[in-house]
Design a protein that fits this description.
The complex is a heterodimer of chains A (296) and B (234). Chain A is mainly α and 296 residues long. Chain A is built from twelve helices and two strands. Chain A has a single domain (2-7, 14-127, 148-286), classed as ABC transporter involved in vitamin B12 uptake, BtuC (Orthogonal Bundle). In chain A, α3 (50-67) packs parallel to α5 and α3 (50-67) crosses α10 (226-241). The longest helix of chain A is centred in the first third of the chain and has 32 residues, at 12-43. Chain A is globular and about 65 Å long. Chain B has 234 residues and is of the alpha/beta class. Chain B has a domain at 1-74 and 187-234: Rossmann fold, CATH 3.40.50.300. In chain B, 38% of the residues lie in helices and 26% in strands. Chain B has ten helices and ten strands. Chain B has helices at 40-48, 70-75, 93-100, 104-107, 110-120, 122-126, 137-149, 167-182, 194-200, 223-232, and strands at residues 2-11, 14-24, 29-33, 55-60, 63-64, 78-81, 155-159, 186-191, 203-208, 211-217. In chain B, strands 6-7-8-3-9-10 form a six-stranded mixed β-sheet, with helices on both faces. A four-stranded antiparallel β-sheet of chain B has the order 2-1-4-5, with helices on one face. The longest helix of chain B is centred in the C-terminal third of the chain and has 16 residues, at 167-182. The chains are: A mainly alpha (296), B alpha/beta (234). At the A-B interface, α7 and α8 of A face α2 and α3 of B.
Chain lengths: 296, 234
C-alpha cells in the first residue's frame, strides 16, 4: 500500500494516466464480455473458446492488412465477417448436436475446441508475435500520455455497445433474444423457432468477437496464446457481473481493467492480474451470483 | 377442430398419458379436470408441441400436427398459456405482448390485436410500460392470456389459469375467460377448480392417472359426483 500512497502523493498524474488507460482497456474488455454473456444468456453455455475465436479474426486481419496490403478497414470488415461465420459455425457444429446434453459436456466441448484452435494456430503460424504496424501517435491530454490506438478502440467499443443496446431493446429479434434469455421454452410458444434465435445470437456474439479483434489488433500483437491471455479475464468479468447480466458485465469490465491498469503502475502488470484474480476469488465467496446479484 | 386419437406421452421412462382420445369443436369451451399428476399439463404440452406424443395422432382443422414442433403449431392457430404463466419477467408488459405477435402473420395485425387485448384487459394498457414481473398474480394471468391472443389463435389452451390466485381473483378471472370466449375463441382449459370451470365450459373430460375416465356435457354431469371423482379419484 505504501507504493500506492507514494504515487498518490508524489505523482498523481501517473496514477491518473493509469486510471485513464484502465478505462480505455475496459471498453474493449466489455465488448468481449458482453459477447460471451449474450451467448450465455440465451444458450446457458459458456463459450470458453470465445476469445480464441477473436484471436482467429485477429490473425485474419493481420494477414490481410500486413501481408496482403489491404486497407485496415477492409481487413477489419473481413475479421468481423469471420467472427460471424465462426459464431454460427460453433453453434451449428459444436453446440447444436449436444444442446440437450448436461452443461458440463457443452463446456468441455467448447474447451476442446479452444485447445484445437490453439494447437492449430501454433502449427500454422508458429508462436511468433505478429502485429499490424500502424503509425498512430501518442497524444497528450492534460499532461497524461494516451495511445491514440487505445482511444480509438475505446470510442469504437462504446459505439458498438450502444448499437448492441439498441439492437437488444429496439428491434423485434433483439427483444426476442432477451425474452429467450429469461425463458427459453416460452418463446417457442410465441411461434419463434428456437434454433433461429440461437443462430442469430451466435452470429451477433461472433460479430462482437470480430469487432473486439479489430480493436485489439491495433493495440496488441497476436500469437497462438492470445486467447489464454484474454480469455480468463473475460470469463471472470462475466462471472463477476453475474453470468447473463449484461449491465453487470459492463460494470465489471471497468472494475477489472482499472485494477489491472492501476496495479500495473503501482506494482507491476503481473501484480495487477494477481490482485484482480485474488479479488475475484474473494468476491466469489461473498457474492457468488455476481456483484449485482440479489441477496439470497 | 382439434382431434386427438390414441395419444400416449411421457418423460423418459415415465408415461403420463395413455391412449387419450379428445375432441374440441370450433366455438366450444372444453375442460379437462382431474387430480394432481393426472397428466393434464402433459396433455396440453402434447397439443402445443412442447413434447411429442409417443403414439397416436393429433390433428387441427384437418391438418396432421403429430410431432410438429411448438413454433409450427402456433402458426396453425393454437396458443398455449402455460402452467405458471411463463411470462418474460424483465420485459415490459408491452414487450411481452409484442413477443406474443412474433409470427409474421400475427405481426401484420399487431395494432389491431393490441387494441383487442387492451379492450379485454384495460389494466394491461395502464401497466404497459411496467415490467411483467412487477404485476400482481391476476394481472400476470391476464397478460399471459393477452400474450397468447396476440398470436391471433383460433384455439386457446389454458393451463391452470386460477393457480396461485386469491379466491376473489379466481372468480374475476373466470369472468374474464368468459369474455374471451364471447370474442369467439375456442377454449381448452385444464383446471383443478372443478366447480368453477364446469360453469364456464360446454363439455368436460375427467383425466385420471393418464387416462380419460369420463366425458360429457358440463350440465349433464352431476356436479357433485364429478367433483368427488376428480378429487377423491374414485
Amino acid at each position: 500500500m505504501s507504493n500506492l500512497l507514494d504515487l498518490v502523493l508524489n505523482n498523481p498524474l501517473l496514477l491518473a494516466e493509469a486510471a485513464l488507460n484502465g478505462l480505455l482497456l475496459g471498453g474493449v474488455l466489455a465488448l468481449l464480455a458482453l459477447g460471451l454473456n449474450l451467448i450465455f444468456g440465451v444458450l446457458d453455455i459458456v463459450w470458453i473458446v470465445y476469445v480464441d475465436l477473436a484471436m482467429l479474426s485477429m490473425y485474419l486481419i493481420y494477414f490481410t492488412v500486413q501481408v496482403y496490403g489491404w486497407p485496415l478497414l477492409a481487413g477489419a470488415a473481413a475479421g468481423i465477417g469471420l467472427g460471424v461465420l465462426l459464431g454460427i459455425g460453433v453453434h451449428l457444429l459444436i453446440i447444436t448436436p449436444i444442446l440437450t446434453s448436461p452443461p458440463v459436456n457443452q463446456l468441455l466441448a467448447t474447451g476442446g475446441l479452444l485447445f484445437f484452435i490453439q494447437s492449430l494456430a501454433t502449427f500454422l503460424w508458429t508462436t511468433d508475435h505478429r502485429s499490424v504496424r500502424l503509425t498512430l501517435p501518442t497524444i497528450e491530454v492534460a499532461g497524461m500520455f494516451v495511445s491514440f490506438a487505445r482511444l480509438i478502440a475505446f470510442v469504437l467499443a462504446v459505439v458498438v455497445m450502444v448499437g448492441l443496446y439498441l439492437f437488444l431493446t429496439r428491434t423485434y429479434i433483439g427483444t426476442a433474444i432477451r425474452a429467450v434469455s429469461q425463458d427459453r421454452g416460452a418463446m417457442a410458444l410465441m411461434g419463434a423457432n428456437p434454433q433461429r434465435i440461437y443462430i442469430v445470437t451466435s452470429a451477433v456474439g461472433g460479430a462482437l468477437a470480430g469487432v473486439a479483434a479489430a480493436l485489439l489488433i491495433i493495440q496488441y500483437s497476436v500469437h497462438p496464446h492470445f486467447g489464454a491471455a484474454f480469455g480468463p479475464i473475460t470469463f471472470m468479468i462475466c462471472v463477476l457481473g453475474g453470468l447473463g447480466n449484461m449491465f453487470g458485465a459492463f460494470v465489471a469490465s471497468f472494475i477489472m481493467s482499472e485494477i489491472i491498469s492501476i496495479g500495473g503502475v503501482v506494482w507491476s502488470t503481473e501484480m495487477g492480474y494477481v490482485i484482480a484474480f485474488a479479488l475475484f476469488i474473494v468476491l466469489m465467496f461473498i457474492r457468488p451470483g455476481g456483484i449485482f446479484a440479489k441477496k439470497q | 377442430m382439434l382431434e386427438l386419437a390414441g395419444v400416449s406421452a411421457g418423460y423418459g421412462h415415465f408415461t403420463a398419458l395413455w391412449d387419450v382420445a379428445l375432441r374440441v369443436s370450433a366455438g366450444e369451451a372444453v375442460a379437462v379436470v382431474g387430480p394432481n399428476g393426472a397428466g393434464k399439463t402433459t396433455l396440453l404440452r402434447v397439443i402445443s408441441g412442447v413434447i411429442a406424443p409417443r403414439t397416436g395422432t393429433l390433428s387441427f382443422e384437418g391438418a396432421a400436427l403429430t410431432g410438429r414442433p411448438a413454433h409450427e403449431i402456433v402458426a396453425h392457430g393454437i396458443a398455449h398459456v402455460p402452467e405458471g404463466r411463463r411470462l418474460f419477467p424483465a420485459l415490459t408488459v408491452a414487450d411481452n405482448l409484442r413477443m406474443g405477435a412474433f409470427l409474421p402473420a400475427a405481426r401484420a395485425h399487431y395494432a389491431e390485436s393490441l387494441a383487442r387485448v387492451f379492450g379485454l384487459f384495460p389494466v394491461l394498457k395502464d401497466r404497459r410500460a411496467q415490467r411483467a414481473g412487477s404485476l400482481s398474480g391476476g394481472e400476470q394471468q391476464m397478460l399471459a392470456i393477452g400474450r397468447a391472443l396476440m398470436s391471433r389463435p383460433k384455439l386457446i389452451l389454458l393451463d391452470e389459469p386460477s393457480m396461485g390466485l386469491a379466491p376473489v381473483m379466481v372468480l374475476r378471472l373466470f369472468d374474464l375467460i368468459r369474455l374471451v370466449r364471447a370474442e369467439g375463441y375456442t377454449i381448452l382449459v385444464v383446471e383443478q377448480n372443478v366447480r368453477q370451470v364446469l360453469k364456464l365450459v360446454d363439455r368436460a373430460y375427467l383425466l385420471e392417472v393418464g387416462r380419460i375416465k369420463m366425458e360429457g356435457r358440463a350440465d349433464e354431469l352431476s356436479e357433485q359426483d364429478f367433483v368427488r371423482k376428480a378429487y377423491v379419484g374414485l
